[in-house]
Automatic annotation (TrEMBL):
Domain Pvc16 N-terminal: 4-181
Protein name as it appears in the record: DUF4255 domain-containing protein
Compositional bias per record (Basic and acidic residues), positions renumbered to this chain: 216-225
Region of interest (Disordered), ranges: 188-225
InterPro entries linked: Pvc16_N
Organism from which the protein derives: Streptomyces parvulus
Length: 225
């Protein structure tokens, strides 16, 4: 699931305001060693935190339908996880980095909700839209300054990008075929009466009517079954 989110982000960042720019998109940790090796402008999207969004957790089962809208399987609801990315721009001058960050915002801000048709693989197969938040209020336990300190790099302008993605739950259970006929009751004899003809069937209300017809008036008055 995580690699599919990476694929979506790479496609988004190479389009929009940066279409045709040739800017590369990387997912490596922006350490000092990495910064020293780069030799071209790049947008770095570093995944630094993965946490479950417990507010989205659901109970019960979900129905899986085929192309005819018939239920063929059942499964547990997916679990949702917040994938937090540190987005930075790397060029030779701060002004160019600021332009790239502006282009990233112009590209991602209109895409607050990604539809299933734009999601690859198992992520798109779930049929769920994926929310995306850019430069929102940081709610994770670690601050960006602490992240830069852990990476051993110098603090620089960055965007906090959060993608809340569903992770499919396993296993799936096969569902029984759809019910196409009503329930019937086969009766072999009532209160000592001779058995009915083999194969004769009655629905529950017909059986009750048959019992009432076989009881005499005295039986009805006493409540005898």
């Amino acid at each position: 699931m995580i690699h599919e989110v990476d694929e979506v982000l790479k496609t988004l960042l190479k389009g929009g305001a940066m279409t045709g720019s040739g800017i590369d998109v990387a997912f490596e940790a922006p350490t000092r060693d990495w910064a020293a090796r780069r030799n071209a402008p790049v947008i770095n999207t570093y995944l630094y935190d993965i946490r479950e969004d417990v507010n989205r957790r659901q109970r019960g089962q979900m129905a899986v339908r085929d192309e005819d809208a018939i239920i063929v399987k059942r499964r547990q609801p997916p679990r949702w996880f917040r994938l937090s990315y540190l987005v930075t721009a790397w060029t030779k001058t701060p002004q160019d980095e600021h332009r790239l960050l502006s282009a990233v915002m112009a590209t991602l801000l209109p895409r607050e909700l990604l539809p299933p048709s734009e999601l690859p693989g198992s992520l798109g197969a779930l049929g769920l839209s994926v929310p995306l938040t850019v430069a929102g209020i940081q709610t994770e336990a670690r601050s960006l300054a602490e992240i830069w300190s852990a990476l051993g790099g110098e603090l620089k302008p960055s965007l906090d990008l959060v993608v809340t993605a569903p992770f499919p739950a396993f296993p799936e259970y096969d569902a029984g075929p759809p019910v196409t006929e009503g329930a019937t009751v086969r009766v072999g004899g009532i209160e000592g009466d001779p058995p009915m003809a083999e194969g004769r069937s009655h629905r529950p209300h017909q059986v009750a009517a048959a019992r009432a017809a076989r009881r005499g008036p005295a039986d009805r008055g006493t409540g005898r079954p």
